[in-house]
């Protein structure tokens, strides 16, 4: 596996995010059911992203963006289906956390939801804890927000 640090304009990152959107549409019952979230996942706002490669093929991604001076928000975490269950997401999140710490952040926050059982299990297993919904998710009871100190 190889981890490449990039940003939201990287073509492989963009393609992986399309795969993530397709997956989220399947899980949630279609794009219209998650339409209010789309505005919060614009790739132009992503300056820090990681793409995971296996034999030169992009297989996963994760990113973060500034939330405030101490906190970054985790965005667009995805592993292609055929590569899931191998622990890659834990390595990816460790790289993302290391990169956020180097950038000076003290905390990472993220938003997820109950249908994303595997994602929630991953986040819990690496130390994220449920926190009150923040910012744009404060009035979205179907959202579950999590936080981790770095």
In short:
The longest helix has 18 residues, at 11-28. This protein has helices at 11-28, 35-38, 88-102, 117-125, and strands at residues 2-6, 48-54, 57-66, 71-79, 107-113, 129-131, 143-149. It is built from four helices and seven strands.
How far is the N terminus from the C terminus?
24 Å
Q: Fraction of residues in helices?
A: 25-40%
Looking at the structure, what is the overall shape? globular
Number of domains: 1
Low-confidence stretches: none
Task: Work out the radius of gyration.
Answer: 14 Å
Major sheet, described briefly? Answer: 7 strands, mixed
Q: Decide which structural class fits the backbone.
A: alpha+beta
Q: Write the element-wise H/E pattern from the N-terminal end onward.
A: EHHEEEHEHEE
The fold-level CATH name is: Aminopeptidase
**Count of helix runs:** 4
CATH architectural category: 3-Layer(aba) Sandwich
């Amino acid at each position: 596996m190889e981890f490449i640090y990039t940003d939201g304009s990287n073509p492989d990152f963009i393609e992986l995010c399309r795969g993530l959107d397709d997956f989220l549409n399947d899980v949630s019952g279609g794009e219209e059911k998650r339409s209010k979230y789309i505005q919060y996942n614009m790739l132009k706002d992503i300056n820090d992203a990681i793409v995971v490669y296996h034999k030169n093929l992009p297989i996963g991604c994760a990113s973060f963006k500034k939330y405030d001076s101490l906190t970054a928000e985790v965005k667009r975490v995805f592993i292609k289906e055929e590569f899931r269950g191998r622990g890659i997401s834990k390595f990816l999140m460790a790289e993302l956390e290391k990169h956020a710490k180097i950038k000076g952040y003290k905390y990472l926050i993220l938003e997820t939801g109950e249908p994303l059982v595997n994602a929630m299990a991953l986040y819990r297993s690496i130390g994220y804890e449920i926190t009150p919904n923040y910012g744009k998710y404060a009035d979205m009871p179907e959202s579950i927000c999590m936080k981790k100190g770095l």
